[in-house]
Automatic annotation (TrEMBL):
Organism field: Emberiza fucata
Protein name, entry field: HEBP1 protein
Cross-referenced InterPro entries: Reg_factor_effector_dom_sf, SOUL_heme-bd
GO molecular function: heme binding
Record-stated family: Belongs to the HEBP family.
One Pfam family here: SOUL
């Protein structure tokens, strides 16, 4: 099921073709010279998002990512490969008391700059295009 998206990604897997999302570095945490994480602020932008709720957190991330890859690799209204932006963001959801993680996660793909004004529509109805306000992201 994922053979074509993986082949498309492999054909287009030149680091020069990956668009890094513009951000402002807020904090950088290192330990013994190794980067543990960065706290970044991203500006207002459109993202393709999918919310998943599988039995295991890892399954939700994996399945959400695979659905986004299909969207990126031609299963969209343009019929074109959209290009990779990094990082792909995973949002972990908590219960109302914010005391525990829920099984739900959101996996999100930043739409490349050239698509921000008119993003292609996904064929998968589970994927929605959202405009996010400026957002804080922890990256590792």
């Amino acid at each position: 099921d994922m053979a074509e998206p993986i082949q498309q990604l492999t054909r287009n897997n030149n680091p020069q073709e990956r668009q890094s999302i513009p951000f402002t570095l807020i904090q950088r945490k290192e330990k013994l010279g190794d980067l543990l994480y960065e706290k970044r602020q991203y500006g207002k932008a459109k993202w393709a998002c999918i919310k998943m709720k599988e039995k295991q957190y890892e399954q939700s991330i994996c399945l959400g990512f695979m659905k986004l890859m299909r969207y990126i690799c031609e299963q969209n209204s343009s019929g074109l490969y959209l290009g990779i932006t990094v990082p792909i963001v995973t949002i972990v959801h908590t219960n109302e008391a914010q005391s525990a993680m829920t099984q739900a996660v959101t996996v999100a793909y930043y739409l490349p700059e050239v698509l921000q004004d008119e993003p292609p529509h996904p064929f998968d109805s589970d994927i929605i295009i959202e405009e996010w306000p400026a957002t804080i992201v922890y990256s590792r």
